[in-house]
Amino acid sequence: MATSRRSRRDAPPPRTGNSEAATLRAFLDYLRDSIAAKVEGAPEPQVRTTLVPSGTTLLGLVNHLTFVERSMFLAENVTDWKATSQPSSEDSVDDVVSRYRETVESANTVLDGCTDIAAPIPRPGAKRPAPSVRWALVHMIEETGRHAGHADILRELIDGSTGR
Question: Quick check: 1 pLDDT over 50?
């Protein structure tokens, strides 16, 4: 349980360009940065500690989101979604956050090549139909935002840290 309160300055929502794609990407990147910031500097072993009945851990959230990004934008097939919430015991906080940031960078490279958000997201060799770029962006905003909220609560329970 938290013993002292530390507060980070909240990052305001992004100011975006005029296009739908620019707006969606800016909000997704805002949430991606928020989730990474929430985990960076979190203490071991508490970052792996289950504090809620669902078994969700702070480090597990970022590990899971790495797999979601890979599945959605890099066409990687995930066969065991439950396992994605369990980082390796050898992985440090820095390892998991770095892998997440690298995956986000690769996903953004794919998105940089998408000029029509109504077109299917490129998935060379994928075995399932691709959603539109718009759908993928909205889904990832929802997924990342949902888990960022979980991360807020878990981090505050761990060490009292609040803010984005």
Answer: no
Q: What is the pTM of this model?
A: 0.90
58's CB contacts (< 8 A; 6+ apart) are 38, 39, 42, 46, 47, 48, 151, 154, 155, 158
3-class secondary-structure state, position 75: coil
* CB neighbour list of residue 112: distance below 8 Å, 6 or more residues apart: none
Question: Cβ(59)–Cβ(39) under 8 Å?
Answer: yes
Crossing angle between the packed helical segments 58-74 and 20-39, to the nearest 10 degrees: 150
Residue type, 1: M
Q: Cα Rg for the chain, rounded, in angstroms?
A: 16
What is the chain's mean pLDDT, rounded? 90
Distance, in Å, from the CA atom of 97 to the CA atom of 155, rounded to the nearest integer, reads 15
